[in-house]
Design brief:
Elements (H helix, E strand, L loop, with lengths): L1 H14 L10 H11 L1 H22 L4 E13 L4 E17 L3 H67 L5 H36 L19 H11 L1 H21 L5 E10 L3 E10 L7 H67 L5 H35 L5 H4 L10
Antiparallel strand pairs: 1-2, 2-3, 3-4
């Protein structure tokens, strides 16, 4: 119980929503989650703030113009006289050359902004995947609870029939005990599955922000890649984690070029015009060139070079991780798809066997234990089928997440705005 409480607490911190929504189908749930999730709202606002930093860096490419005005009153106490003076001036300052330092800093900030955009996309897809899994888990656990209730009802009837036949001397006390034990086991299983459903409901409410009252079965999923090769190709183009790693590599290159610029000369021009007792104008050109600073500049360049090597290694590692994730998701999907037909045949076969055993038991050629075993086999087959269908849906959405296409466009969420706000 402590473990369940801790899990719910963690989920509430990461995905907590405080607003309620009355939703039925998966798309409605995902649309609400995408637009109202607190974590995503915060990250979108941080991204907007970061865009302002790029505007500030671009402003450094333009001249800096300042206007000043002053008025001074001076009193000579000895002569009891007063003099007044006013001064107005306009000054401008502009960097003519800095070794492309500003341009490289702007390029670096652009890459950093792109990384933040990819990071936001990655988190959006993680939140959507969590919401999908919460939705599917509730549907699965509801189905398992329904099957368990059905099993309890069937075994209860079986126990009643066994007790009646025992009263008429057709069966033994052993038959009654077997049916009673089977009923106790079924009730225990039902209680466990009801507990799992309660936990799934709690996680759903914490992630989505509403209770899962009316959920519609998921009958269709977005189009999936037709092959593993196509999945890999799409992932290397759209997976936000990999794109973020590549952009980080580009930013490291820009930072390296910016660090090299600190060895370049710097040339600035400034001018001013003032009006006071008279009119004056001034133009000044200032140049500087670093000669010696104890090796600091060279150290900065070496540091940037090593950071570029790290970024390249990380992008290569990210590529391998993405491909591995795609392969695993594709394999999971193929296995889950192959399982469904076999599970359907298993249910059909067990249902026929159960009907036959019941009829044979009525004729006296089968025991109560045989009937209970057949009933248990049929229920297990139905549970396996329900689990296989849920796993197939989950695997499909996992693949979309792995290739980077678990986005509002692919899911056809029809958002009010592109950024979800």
């Amino acid at each position: 119980m402590k473990g369940k409480t801790f899990l719910i607490f963690v989920v509430s911190i990461l995905f907590g929503n405080t607003q309620l929504v009355f939703s039925d189908d998966l798309k409605t749930v995902l649309r609400f989650t995408f637009e109202k999730n607190n974590q995503l709202i915060v990250e979108r606002k941080k991204l907007l703030a970061q865009r302002e930093q790029l505007i500030q860096l671009r402003a450094n490419l333009l001249p800096n113009i300042t206007a000043n005005i002053s008025r001074t009153n001076t009193w000579d106490l000895d002569s009891n006289s007063e003099t007044n003076s006013s001064l107005a001036s306009i000054s401008a300052d502009y960097t003519i050359y800095d070794g492309n330092l500003r341009a490289n800093n702007i390029a670096s900030e652009k890459h950093l902004l792109r990384m933040s955009e990819f990071s936001l996309t990655l988190n959006e897809q993680k939140v959507l995947l969590s919401a999908i899994k919460a939705y599917l888990d509730v549907l699965r656990d509801r189905r398992l609870v329904d099957l368990s209730k059905k099993n309890v009802a069937v075994i209860t009837k079986q126990l009643s029939a066994t007790q009646s036949r025992f009263d008429f001397g057709e069966l033994t006390r052993t038959d009654v005990s077997q049916a009673s034990a089977a009923l106790s086991a079924a009730e225990s299983t039902l209680a466990a599955r009801q507990g799992n459903l309660e936990l799934s409901n709690s996680i759903f409410e914490l992630i989505i922000g509403s209770e899962p009252i009316h959920l519609v079965e998921v009958d269709d999923i977005p189009p999936l890649p037709s092959s593993l090769k196509e999945s890999k190709k799409i992932a290397l183009k759209y997976n936000p984690a990999y794109q973020e790693a590549i952009t980080n590599e580009d930013m490291a290159r820009a930072n390296l070029e910016a660090s090299k610029s600190i060895r370049s000369p710097n040339l600035r021009i400034s001018s001013s015009i003032s009006e006071g007792q008279g009119t004056s104008a001034q133009i000044r050109i200032v140049g500087s060139l670093p000669i010696f600073n104890g090796g600091k500049n060279e150290s900065v360049i070496r540091e940037s070079s090593k950071r570029l090597e790290v970024a390249i290694s990380r992008s290569n590692l990210s590529r391998l991780n993405v491909i591995q994730s795609v392969v695993a998701s594709w394999s999971e999907l193929e296995v889950s798809k192959a399982m469904i037909p076999t599970r359907i045949r298993q249910v059909e076969a067990n249902n026929l066997a159960y009907q036959g055993v019941r009829e044979e038991a009525r004729l006296g050629t089968r025991t109560t234990l045989d009937v209970l075993d057949a009933e248990q086999a049929l229920m297990n087959a139905e549970i396996d089928l329900a689990t296989a269908k849920s796993n197939r849906l989950s695997a499909a959405f996992n693949l979309l997440s792995a290739i980077g296409k678990l986005d509002p466009e692919t899911l056809n969420l029809k958002l009010k705005s592109k950024n979800g706000s």
